[in-house]
């Protein structure tokens, strides 16, 4: 009997850059590839073809994406580009720098990416869904996952080109979102991170029409979706964390839900990520941002009165065109009043195609950097004090990983975990000194014994 040798499956290398929304796009592409019988390569040399999912939000991200494409071409030679940078100038922007790429697509274009891969590396067989796990291929650790609920954005912020890259707001059907959450939780995910370009606007594009999940009618509204996710997560003893929530008036409903579930295990966390960007009314107008700073302060006071343990994080831009020293002082005063727990800041960076590039009175780079340093110094003191206030508390944390740490001349193993106040990769950590026996993805109660500028030091109970 003559045996026919089995040919190895074609292997795809994958580079994913940018925000969590892009990461979800990458996971979807990888899941489809795996279902079609492709293998995923861990190196350029082991790949028959490489896909680079790019970011094009700011100049630094553009440069990183172009460098990644160049590296993939140099190391492998066969490269397909997708993502936000691919949408710029219909793909010609990428091709001007890297004319030898095989294909260029925009963001959220799974079918186009698959079609390009099929053209250059034919699929081995017809799709079989059982080749991938029910939750699909994930690029995050097993115990947390991003849950994208919409695509695009209806705002026209002058510093941003996301609408031109990803389009206007396009809310996913509420039944599909809840179904995806169920798959993730059933697969062992212990934290769902809800992401989109504008989470609070979920459903506005379709006038909050009624959708269905398992035959139940549900309004396509962020408050309804959050309530469903909260109940689902508590059933699985998991967390739900909300990102990119503008401080719209109806966010009060979300805070009320957080307050109602605060004493229960799992479910919706008392955490809001609000991209505020500035606090000077004049600069906010130039940015075409939707929020008035005085109303934001009032809303924060009401929220914290109702829910003292609420964690607030935000991001800001310093050195926006036309920003004066008075504008910047207004921003620092806002920080002092708002007492935000976690803050990120960036010096303004011109983005190709952004309306803000045409604004007068650009701020010199040295002044941007000086203001950024003062901003971070002000916020660091606020964050450090808020962490100091947690010393002596008992809290539940989610273990992420084990790591080596030095105690004098000795090396020891500690657990790195996160509290309800800490989103992965952007916030702080809880270092558990006696956590060498803990497993990633498990919840554990700890006593907070000390705090640094960014992290908490704890001991497992």
Short description:
The protein has 461 residues and is α/β, with parallel strands linked by helices. It has 12 helices and 20 strands.
Write a structural description.
This protein is of the alpha/beta class and about 450 residues long. It has helices at about 20-35, 60-75, 90-95, 110-120, 160-165, 175-185, 220-235, 250-260, 280-285, 295-305, 325-340, 365-390, and strands at about 10-15, 40, 50-55, 80-85, 105, 145-150, 150, 170, 190-195, 210-215, 215-220, 240, 265-275, 310-320, 340-345, 395-405, 410-420, 430, 445-450, 455-460. It has a six-stranded parallel β-sheet. The chain has a five-stranded parallel β-sheet with strand order 2-1-3-4-5, sandwiched between helices. Helix 1 links the parallel strand 1 (about 10-15) and strand 2 (about 40). Helix 1 (about 20-35) crosses helix 4, helix 6 (about 175-185) packs parallel to helix 7 (about 220-235) and helix 7 (about 220-235) runs parallel beside helix 8 (about 250-260). It is globular. The termini are far apart.
